[in-house]
Design goal:
The protein has one domain (about 5-15, about 25-105). Helix content is about 80%, strand content about 0%. It is built from four helices and no strands. The two termini are about 25 Å apart. The mean pLDDT is about 80.
């Protein structure tokens, strides 16, 4: 079983966005929620960029970025599933609805 580490999730987002994620233990669930949202949208935008990428180096960079987003998403998902499954259901339903509205399609 993988160890869930919020610092690792934060580090992935810091690498992708260049921003620091701050917070206390009380904000932990909220941080995981943010990681879930950011990684989901980041993955979707990287997927769209991948469709347009022409050279192999750009494609490899985007695939690596997508993999990082995927790992961060599932780390946050595991945490929320364990700590607050109702919030996870709500968040994932909202994400699907938002992706359909923003991108016109839903991709898992």
């Amino acid at each position: 079983m993988a160890v869930i580490d919020i610092e690792y999730g934060k580090a992935i987002l810091e690498d992708q966005y260049g921003e620091t994620v701050e917070g206390s233990d009380k904000q932990s669930a909220q941080e995981w929620e943010m990681i879930l949202h950011n990684s989901s949208y980041g993955h979707e935008y990287a997927r769209l960029e991948l469709e347009e990428a022409k050279d192999m180096i750009s494609q490899e960079d985007l695939l690596e970025k997508m993999d990082n987003y995927k790992r961060a998403y599932f780390m946050a998902r595991r945490y929320l599933k364990r700590e607050n499954p109702e919030a996870l259901k709500r968040i994932e339903t909202d994400l699907i609805d938002q992706k359909v509205r923003i991108f016109g399609v839903y991709t898992a």
